[in-house]
Fold each of these.
Amino acid sequence: MTRQATTEVLGVHDLTVSFPDERGRVTAVRGVSWSLRAGEVLGVVGESGCGKSATALAVMGLLPHGARVGGSVRFRDRELLGLRDDELAAVRGRSVAMVFQDPLSALNPVYSVGFQVAEAVRAHHPGLGREEAVERAIALLELVGIPNARDRVADYPHEFSGGMRQRVVIAIAMADDPDVIIADEPTTALDVTIQAQVLDALRTAREQTGAATVLITHDLGVVAGQADRVVVMYAGKVVESGTVEEVFYTPRMPYTLGLLGSLPRLDGARDARLTPVAGTPPALDRPITGCAFAPRCPLATDLCRTEEPPLAPVDGEHLAACHFSADLVDRRPEDVFPPRPAPLPPDTPVAEQATPIVTAAGLVKHYRVRGAGLFRRDRGELHAVCDVSFDLSTGETLGLVGESGSGKSTIARLLMSLEDPTGGRVLLDGEPLARRGHARDLQIVFQDPMNSLDPRMTAADLVAEPLRVNGTGRREARVRALELLRSVGLSGAGSERYPHEFSGGQRQRIGIARALALRPRVLVLDEPVSALDVSVQADVINLLEDLRDALGLAYLFIAHDLSVVRHIADRVAVLYLGRVVETGDRDAVFDHPRHPYTRALVSAVPLPDPRKERARERIVLTGDVPSPVDPPSGCRFRTRCPEYLGGLTDAQRARCAGEVPALLDGVACHWARP
Amino acid sequence: MLAYVLRRLLHAVPIVLVGSFITFVMVSASGDPLGDLKAKQPPVPRAVLDAEAHRMRLDQPVLERYWHWLTGIPRGDWGPSVKKIDIGAEIWPRLWVSARLVTLAVLLALALALVVGVVSAVKRYSAVDYAFTAIGFLLLSMPAFWLAILLKQQAIDLNQATGSTLVYTVGEASIPPPTGFWPTVADVLGHLVLPTIVLAMTAFPPWSRFVRSSMIEVQESDYVRLARAKGIKRRKVLVRHALRTALVPLTTVVALDLAVLFSGAVVTETVFQWRGMGSFLLSAVRDKDIYAVMAWLLLVSVIVVVFNLVADLLYAVLDRRVRLG
């Protein structure tokens, strides 16, 4: 660390933030302190609702109407809390700039991108002419990697992809050469290969402006790769802080340990059962006595429940808020968080059978795209799924991975007969799928349990509904529903509550219980855990594994999160623009990817292990996924393929452009490595 | 864009045709245009009744009558009238009279809606906000004719108290009209004051509520937050980012309310004894003057369809995400 590293640029001291709520006030931030030093990257991690974003907004003075702030926020020697809005306006953008989470909503849809960047330039240089500001905007857009920036300044945000929009937001943050950049979940909404590009753009912004950065994220992998120091937040407080290595390798607070243990790992470092943290974070609408984590902590004693542990040094600058941090030296997650086996439904397992239950044979799905002319003739077809085949046997999990637009969810809908394929067919036990007849055998669990459960039905009714629809008597259906709810870990009084009264993880359990009601043999799981926080996600993954093993279910597990797929799947199929580019045993695919796309995808997933993550060679793909309306000829990946753009000869390239590579031996690439 | 306009106009033609046919059948069935004539004492001779029925095309089946009426319009023949007026010659000047009332009322209501909506959104849950809400609901629940009579009586009292005509309370212009261009304009505007206020007062409350809620929504949006994070002053962000975006959906609301405003104009014009579309419709209905009623309905429906198209086009200009197609 250099001399610079000790000077504080931004300091938050004993910050509190509370919001009005229908039941009173919610204290989202309960006395947070951290210090950002010149030139460093400070990672702030924690699950949703822990107060990460509220802290950032409090620093910027951008909290919504009705929020109350206490404590202190100092930029260099100046107190920012209590400043008038116009005084703060002079600080925002120039001293402290911000990058927001959702690039799709962060830009105003009615102004051009150039205007919005130039606006940021002119905010602190009122003398600058419009043209000069636009010139500067173009320069900024080029810096963050917008191709043909000059031609694109007049375009509107909706004409840019999500990753490109996030670069624009980063360009805006750079515009006034700030001293601090606060990035609030800057890559959460993006696909992994795009995330890698955006993290590069953020690094460029840091290097260009020399700004110190606060990187707020729930993704421990991103922090491991980017941050110098880490602050872990829980229930509106800092529970641990230190260098990345200290926090990742020698955590001294059970919560941090639990978070690390609940993460599925892409590098296969933890193939054992995940160690979820039981329960959910506390509600913050009433005061908390003692340690906020105590109700979920296996080590908690009466002392923890009555007296709040201070954030105290455990080793130099490594701080932890735990009465028993000394006991955590050299403890592994599974030592502290014993995995709980789930009670399982008393159903008999599906009989093992030699032939696959489900076979997808050459599935094709095209959607018509209508033109804008006088007669709206078809402008073309959107090629969502192209010649996808796979099969699925009892007790097996096939992971379907791919980025947005790869056709994952369309395949799920085709399998469920929610849509008719343009070509190919789905076979169940070798027979073509009949719409109603096989509904019992195939069930689906959706990504967002809030949107897939009727808000006006109780948990018991939701689970009983498929049974009632299929002719089971009211009383019998209810008994079975309660039994199913119990088997997914929701027992007793919970059955009469409504979806909004449950946490996200519990809602997903209801979704699973509902899918199991008809004793299906195959479950299609469409991003079942991607809306959940890691500690909760681990619990649901464990449940799914237990159910599969006990009932002999076959899973089609669709996810964009490669680590989760690596953990749960037996076999994997990697999709790109509607085609399977690589398929095979999960260890083979993840440890020795052969298709250039799989290689890039695997290398782009951040590992929650600072040393490994920093030592890894990363393949950052250029550009965005092409439009499925007009996919590239031949190999669809070639427009982004590092081999095609780099290593291949002209003759080899001609083959990529002219001939669709067949899926041979699990890889669809003309030049696949053995 | 042009293709879109053409396609929308092509879509509009069958809508107007089907609509006009349905209303034609309904209006034709609503009473006997010769009822007054037949009830006369002493009775009108049979031959006269037959001749009148023939002139009113009552001896033709409905379908034929409709076809006759429809094909006459392009030639400027709006059909026979019970009162033997020339419907075409009568309706155009009246449309102009009503159109200037509705246009001015829309502009005034828009201005009021913006001011009230923005202020209530910015000062949400303050005394001002609650006061605006109360006034809005008061105006919403007040029948237009009652507000009109109230204002008219106040104006008459005021005129009597001062002994001169400060505010015109009768007619759309003085009779005889003043000579010269500017005196005419001043005279017309003077007569517009009260009816415009009445119409605008009944139209603006829902619009201001709409502006308020969309301003509140936009103010909480990420892009308004980003604009402020750039270091732009609050007031500037409010106008440039919040209001500009909040305005977009208002165009549709206003266009849809246009039909309501035309019916509101009927009531208002009647109270102020204007010779506009309102009294035209009322006397046509009273006289069971089928073709006059149809002329009114056709014009208003065409206006509504056209302004909906205009609103959609405006929407696409204001928000580039909207692709017409």
Note: The mean pLDDT of chain A is 88.
Amino acid sequence: MKNQKKNRIWNAVKIPLFAILCSLVAAGVVIAVTGSNPFRAYYALLQGSGLAPKSSYANYKSMLTDFLSYVNFFTPMIFAALAVAVALRAGLFNIGVSGQMLAAGFTATVLVGYSGLGAAVAKPLVLLIGMAVGGLAGALVGFLKYRFNINEVVSTIMLNYIFQYVASFLINTYYVDPVSRQSVEISAAARLTLMDLPIGNLKVEIPLGIIAALAAVVLVWILFDRTKLGYELKAVGFSRSAARYAGIRVGRCMVLSMTISGMLAGLAGVTYYLGYVGTIQPKVLLSTGFDAIAVSLLGNNNPFGIIFSTMLISLISKGSTYMRSAAGVDAEIASVITGVILLFSACSVYIRWKLERRKQEAGQTAKEGK
Amino acid sequence: MNTMIIDGLSFALPLFIMAIGGIYCEKSGVTMLAVEGLQGFGAFVGAFAAVLVSGAFSGNSPAPFYIAMCFAALGGGVFALLHALLCLRFRANQVISGVVVNIMAMALTAYLTKLLNRVLFGAASDKFMLTVSARLTVPGLSKIPVLGAVFTNLYPFELVIVAVALVAWFVLYRTRFGMHLRACGDNPHAVDAAGRQVNHIRLAAIVICGALSGLGGICFAYSISANFSASIYVGYGYLAIAALIFGNWRILPTLGACLIFGLARSGGYRLVQILQMPSSFQDLVMILPYVLTLLLLLFFSKQNGAPKALGEIYDKGAR
């Protein structure tokens, strides 16, 4: 029994591991060809994320501060990847996570970030607004799909650009900081990350959002593995017509899954814009929402798998800045590595199918041999 | 009014050629969301070729531009093989595959542009500089009131696109290959029964789509941005997909959709200029094509005639 469970976990993990290994090797070859040492580059990734000691640190900095900054960095990614996973389980493809993040982050910034509310009120309010705005944006997409048969990929992308330009217009017109050309920084009370907290001789950042992120992981797991709604969502994801035949209200499920997905994306938005950075750069849509697709696929769309894949993908992008200075490798290689991982993950269904068939064939020949 | 038509056309036609690529691919039964990545990669290859050869020609020679167009089509076609590999060989989900191709294209072109600039030209730049393509005016025809604007200040690529589009229309609707291709999207088993390889036809369709998308990409690079950089990825590929859905997977109605997008965009810009609004209002105008897409899809998605086998992996043994 125990062995069986172990086997199942190994089966789930071996293909993502294979994908990671292949892409690291492939990227390593590229790095070597361009004249740098791949091992040095990969070690620099770890150093940049606070998982390995650097040779020297600036004042108030240590491996711990680097690590906390890394946690701060990947918190939004957990939410974003969960958002992709929830939609994907129900057979929908939410590539509007970045836009939903921006909509939620911008609304929360304007409503709470500049309001001067106390921390005890402001911080929960930010989370609530993030969920509400993201959820609404997601629900709209689900509704368009269900009521008007509009492909969610097209509608989310159109909404991405609409959010991006509207937010950029409003920021440039009302909230721009003339020096940084970004939106005015939000008040410390509304910020979900405690910045520059003096502990000992260090100044650390404490990302409060990570607690909510881990809670969200557990909640999504409960939703899909322990509730009727989660079961219905999965049924819709497997086959829409079969689900309809079984009496599941498919339209309601699609709208609900997009709403939940949007809520998670909204949380990703507030933990990024009101946690990790504190300002919004106009005209820029984050790549987080797109990387989240890679993260979710790599984690088999499983909430716990997503924690690990988030840490890995974020490690690559967070560490890439330090890698450039320490190992002289272009930071852009980071997204190439992510892309290659995604490439291999996309083939995972085929690889699994092939492996299973080979096993079956092997079983068959063994039987015939007897 | 004239500027609106001129700018609108120079935006609509590259969009149109990309949408035709999408029609080819989707008509063969393969979901195509990778237009964005394909146009970017095509533009990257084309721009790189143009930068390489530009030294050999005089400053205002049009030759680098035509070379760039050829290489852009080539680059888009080759990169489309990735989509074909994932969809046809590895039976990946076609939607996911499309997104993978897009992400790969963005990552690769950003990385390679920087690398090639450093290694070959010794410059720390993340873009390939191009010139803005010269324009031409058709004498005589341009004198016609209103409609004359269509023949005024044309980019040469607009003529190329019209020619290619005519050929593409002919091949899709008037040749045996085109009929097989369309049949692949509606009833692949029938094609198989007629003795054709479904996957070969789909492969051809995907590569054609890549080539046409690359062509569209280099036209954008030569008209709107005058360089190749990451700014080539602003979602025009997705706009092309919206246009083809709105055009019901048929070439002529798709042209109409593209024209609407183009005119909405240039009209919006004109409006900002005429009303002398501050430049930040341009951001607001930029959303026009996207809002329009959504609104139009509201009315046209319901009764759309998507190819029946769209997105399905062809399995010879299935019934």
Note: Residues 211 and 310 of chain A are 15 Å apart (CA to CA).
